TrEMBL record:
InterPro entries: HOTDOG_ACOT, HotDog_dom_sf, Thioestr_dom. The gene is LOC101268358. It comes from Solanum lycopersicum (Tomato). This is HotDog ACOT-type domain-containing protein. GO terms for molecular function: fatty acyl-CoA hydrolase activity. GO terms for biological process: acyl-CoA metabolic process. It holds the Pfam family 4HBT. Residues 145-267, 342-459 form the HotDog ACOT-type domain. It comes from the Eukaryota. CDD domains: BFIT_BACH.
Length: 489
């Protein structure tokens, strides 16, 4: 295998479809429409995310007519295929590699839009900003992804947690990846001559789990741009899972998520105007109105955060802090069914690696969301004493970008609990991500995440119960009040 010519012969023999589309190696011809060809290798050779047989057109103004199929990125131990040559990976420009290191869905989405990126990476002339904006319908950006859990054993294993349930953290990561693809499709110009924008996840609104998601039944996630401002847009995603006992579409809906993305010029870094949206159907118009109302509410809340807490809220602060003073001054007399926030904390640290970056060299928002969810899950587990059940993502703020090489510390705590319904207590977990720069002796918050969990009813037998959580400082009490008000608004 050391001889280049024999190696080439080996690759052509093992993966004949790999060289069938020369634009993957040499760039597109001027009159050739970019095609996403997923049939790189024969099915009996590889179970890679590229071993599908469908083709998807990914022109800037095209839509995916069929759901993007997702398959496992690893091979089943039951397979007895020949050994795969590790050097036969796809030869792409290094700027197109990042998405290949993520989940099967991120891999599939990355491939589906990679030929658009290749046009820019192959360009010899620096493209200009997009000056002539166009209006697109939501259908132009609509994209769906299909997980064939029922038939793909290895894919199912990649998404299964220790309790034979779905790994919600991986699903959240996939939702962010899909939202990114949808935003890119909406912002792309028709002719592909203008330079691409930097599209950043700004926030994620509340995601409420409407029904449990199974890991042995096929799953589909689908979404489109529903609202556009000057340089921001909202993408609504739906997670759907049908079963023999479920017939209607509404009963198949398991989760709805609203992502807000903002656009930056890739050269100047300043906010950039984006294509407008032109809803056509009654459903599209209704979704636009709902998104417009959410955008107005976000602006109102941002203004309210700047106001000082006063009046009745001062009394609420004092009430929250009254019990914590007992913990601090007379701990032997403190309520045994309560615990200080600081005693529920967990944290972990990591160095952000190149494999976790997006096309712009920044860390994937979905990767951060998955790591935050998994830490929140562990925090709720250690607090409740039994495996928690996911209820909702309350809110996610992406305040500052996270770069490759950053030293990231995630800190979590149980912020407060809701015990009105003792059969279904709610555990509200906060995760704050800090970017630390030891050489500069600096640390700043990059992300805030809020998750809600509950526990199985059988874990509350024999007098077991979820404890009340008490803020120990005024700053903690303010955070509790802010989250409670956000939940009730």
């Amino acid at each position: 295998m050391g001889n280049p010519s024999s190696r080439l012969h080996f690759l052509i023999k093992r993966c004949p479809n790999f060289y069938r589309k020369p634009h993957f190696l040499l760039g597109l011809a001027k009159d050739e429409k970019p095609i996403f060809n997923t049939a790189f290798c024969d099915q009996n050779v590889s179970r890679s995310p590229f071993s599908q047989t469908k083709q998807f057109s990914v022109g800037a103004n095209d839509t995916f007519s069929d759901p993007i199929p997702v398959v496992a990125t690893a091979r089943s131990p039951l397979d007895s295929s020949p050994t795969i040559d590790a050097g036969s990976s796809i030869r792409k420009p290094i700027s197109l590699w990042p998405g290949m290191y993520h989940s099967p869905v991120t891999n599939a989405l990355w491939e589906a839009r990679s030929s658009i990126f290749e046009r820019f990476s192959d360009a010899t002339i620096d493209p200009t900003p997009q000056n002539d904006l166009i209006a697109k319908t939501p259908s132009k950006s609509r994209t769906s992804v299909l997980y064939k859990f029922s038939s793909d054993y290895v894919l199912r294993e990649q998404y299964r947690n220790p309790w034979n349930e779905i790994r919600m953290g991986k699903l959240l990561e996939d939702l962010d990846a899909l939202a990114g693809t949808i935003s890119f499709k909406h912002c792309s110009s028709n002719d592909g001559t203008t330079r691409p924008l930097i599209l950043v996840t700004a926030s994620v609104d509340k995601m409420l789990l409407k029904k449990p998601i199974r890991v042995d039944t096929d799953l589909k996630i689908e979404g489109a741009v529903t609202w556009v401002g000057r340089s921001s847009m909202e993408i609504q995603l739906e997670v759907m899972q049908s079963s023999p006992e479920v017939s209607s579409t509404s009963e198949s809906l398991a989760l709805t998520a609203n992502f807000t993305f903002v656009a930056r010029d890739s050269k100047t870094g300043k906010s950039a105007p984006i294509n407008q949206i032109s809803p056509k159907t009654e459903t599209e118009k209704l979704l636009w109105e709902e998104a417009e109302e959410r955008n107005k509410m976000r602006k109102v809340k941002r203004g309210e955060r700047k106001k000082e807490i006063q009046g009745e809220e001062v009394n609420r602060l004092n009430e929250l802090l009254a019990e914590s003073r007992i913990f601090c001054d007379m701990p032997a007399l403190a309520d045994r069914d309560s615990i200080l926030i600081k005693d529920t904390c967990l944290q972990n640290s990591l160095i952000c690696q190149p494999q976790q970056r997006n096309i712009h060299g920044r860390i994937f928002g979905g990767f951060l969301m998955r790591r935050a969810f998994e830490l929140a899950y562990a925090t709720a587990y250690a607090f409740a004493g039994s495996a928690p059940c996911f209820v909702e993502v309350d809110h996610v703020d992406f305040l500052k970008p996270v770069d490759v090489g950053n030293f990231l510390r995630l800190k979590s705590c149980v912020l407060y609990t809701e015990l009105e319904n003792l059969s279904k207590p709610l555990i509200n977990v906060e995760v704050v991500a800090h970017v630390m720069r030891p050489e500069l002796r600096s640390s700043e918050v990059s992300n805030n995440f809020y998750f809600t969990f509950t526990v199985q009813q059988d874990s509350l037998k024999n007098g077991a119960r979820v404890r009340n959580v008490v803020p120990g400082t005024e700053e903690e009490a303010r955070r509790v009040i802010e989250r409670m008000d956000a939940e009730n608004s």
